[in-house]
Amino acid sequence: RRRVSLVDYEYADLIDNQDKVRTLIDPTSSYALAAAYALGRAMDDEIIAAASGTAYTGESGSTSTVLPSAQKITESGTDGLTIAKLRTAKETLDNSNVDPSIARHIVVGPRQITDLLATTEVTSSDFNTVKALANGEINSFLGFNFITCNRLDLTSSKRLCLAFATDGIKLAVGQDLMTRIDERSDKGYATQVYVCGSFSATRMEEEKVVTIQAHEA
Fold first, then answer.
1. CB neighbours (10 Å) of residue 118?
2. pTM for the predicted model, two decimal places
3. pLDDT at 122 over 60
């Protein structure tokens, strides 16, 4: 069993009537979309933190469980994300008997895609596959579905990339995103865009998550 402590998020912004006149269009819908994206980024942050952070287990959820060192691919030098690291991540999941039929994902930054292009030979099949990945023609390599994200932790020039099986991380949603667009009589009848949600995430099985350090100067 895993314990998840839900976190409440709120976003609110006022749109003055004068702003509507100046833009000649009603920006309310665009504001609402931007607000939803803001909470979506908060949801991403919860998932990223849970993947490599401390999970709370046991009947009462009071036992702290960290990601074992065997699930971490570290980098002490200046190597970025390499094919060798991806192969090691795949091997780590395979050695833990993670069902290959379960979709596997890897979250990397834009620099890591560049690293893969730079560390492969032009004549190799690996290069051709990574080049197609960078061009957006495919989204998978070595069994991983690639997701590009700029919100991964960067500490001491080391980007922490995440490889995981789909059911290795769970998002808990106490309240789905709720959007309200109302006039505020106490704010000169300006229109308020309000979005809120309650959610958090946890790592379900340590064997299904692998972290990969990639140097990023």
1. 12
2. 0.86
3. no
